[in-house]
Amino acid sequence: MTNKEKVESAGGFDKNTFWKAVYVVLLVGSCLGFYWATTQTDYIWRWNRLPRYFYYTEHVEVRSEIEGEISSITKKGEDSVVIVKSDTDSEYYTVPGSDLTVTEGDFVYMGDPLGGYDEGRMGLLLEGLIVTVEVSMVSIVLGVLLGLFTGLARISTNPCLKWSAITYIELIRGTPLLVQIMIWYFVLGTIINNLLLKMGLFQIPELWFGVASLAIFAGAYVAEIVRAGIQSIHKGQMEAARSLGMTKTKAMAKIILPQAFKRILPPLAGQFISLIKDSSLLGVIAIRELTKATREAVTTSLMPYELWFLCGIMYLVLTFALSMFVQYLEKRTAEA
Both 275 and 148 in a single domain? Predict the structure, then answer.
């Protein structure tokens, strides 16, 4: 504490506490002001409806696929087996539990319910969250690998590798991600799947074209981060390693990259966080990630305020968790 701060504290005035109080007042005032503004729009908040977008129970009906008579109903553990017999055929149906709507001797038509059961299902937002996490994690891993090799090629003395890396980096960084997603889905995706179809092979789902676009986009930025990290290590490190008999490749792997990794962790974390948020653009190619799932939920429920707030909070939780993980890695590498 400085002499000035000691004097202020002795006089009963703590500047630090005062500005903390100002922050709390501003935060509370902003929340109250927003709440008051929403009351002026005649909007009815329905927070109680949000849990069903994560998990809900649906009543599933077992329906007859033929027209005929219920010839028998038998128990099989906790389930009921219903046999429907027609003039030419017979079929049996398993109804979980004992919620039957028919009895023996009843006549049923095609499509008539025989019974039903409750089944837990994943909500729309939870499905979107899982897709977002999967797409982001795969894209991050692929982007790191691609960025590492491209960054090394960027500083290579081989003109082919160096120029190829520069072309890739400038091409990707100079065009919007949304345009790249469109090109991957409508152009490259169509060409690749048509070629696979002619060869009698499987078709690649649109999800993987979305992953490819994100990974290649992230790889270009990671490459520049890796290049800057490597070049920040003093040249004497490489010279000392070479003087000890190490090859250039071994010196890079054992000496340079471990030191560079500690320096590039913060910018890498920022790039990964941006990638998670950029995954929201995949909704334009019919991938039901979190943003698209929220948009569909808003369309059916007419609850834009609650659902978009919830969507933002879910993205915040993802990015905050990743930020905490990177900080943990920073501490571990600093101690090593």
Answer: yes
Q: How far apart are CA 98 and CA 195, in angstroms?
A: 52
**Same domain for 170 and 109:** no
On whether the CB atoms of residues 238 and 256 are closer than 8 A, the answer is yes
* Statement: residue 6 has pLDDT above 80: no
pTM: 0.82
By mean pLDDT, which of 115-124, 173-182, 243-252 is the weakest? 243-252
Check residue 87 and report its DSSP letter: S
Give the Cα separation of 313 and 315 in Å (integer).
5
Residue 99 belongs to domain spanning: 59-122
Dihedral (C-alpha) 163, 167, 169, 170: value to the nearest 10 degrees? Answer: 130
Judge whether 7 and 1 are in contact, CB under 8 Å: no
Environment class of residue 99 by beta-carbon count within 10 Å: exposed (0-12), middle (13-18) or buried (19+)? Answer: middle
Residue 162 phi/psi, 5-degree rounding, is -65, -45
Enumerate the β-bridge partners of residue 73. 82
